[in-house]
Design a protein that fits this description.
alpha/beta; two-stranded parallel sheet; 5 strands; 124 residues; 48% helix; 6 helices; 3-stranded parallel beta sheet
Length: 124
């Protein structure tokens, strides 16, 4: 999985992908779809414009009612993200792994909206 993530990151960097390009693509593509498209992000792109403005930008791009997951924020630090997502009608999806302790997994499931993303481990 790590190799796949690194390959995807390298491809994205080679194509000079940036936040504005992703938002532009979302504005073009999302109106044509009849399903929600989960959005994945790290916290740094959210911090740059600020959480409120970020949510406004993705909502204006058509992410309304869709699922949104921030990959590098632990459960204990998701309160403000979940609150802002809810205010913007965006489901905050949390993630877990097969090795997550059961009590922690139960806590994650109890606050996640839409679904819980289960990260798997694969050997290639």
């Amino acid at each position: 999985m790590v190799q796949l993530s690194r390959a995807a990151a390298a491809c994205s960097l080679a194509r000079e992908t940036n936040f504005d390009a992703v938002i532009s693509m979302l504005r073009e593509v999302l109106p044509q779809l009849s399903c929600s498209v989960p959005q994945f992000s790290y916290y740094n792109p959210i911090l740059k414009p600020g959480l409120g403005k970020f949510m406004s930008i993705i909502k204006d791009a058509g992410v309304q009612g869709a699922m949104f997951m921030v990959l590098d924020v632990p459960l204990e630090e998701t309160d403000i993200l979940r609150m802002e997502s809810s205010k913007n009608n965006i489901e905050s999806v949390l993630h877990t792994t097969p090795t997550t302790p059961t009590d922690r997994m139960t806590s994650i499931v109890s606050v996640s909206k839409g679904f819980v993303y289960l990260e798997g481990y694969y050997q290639f």
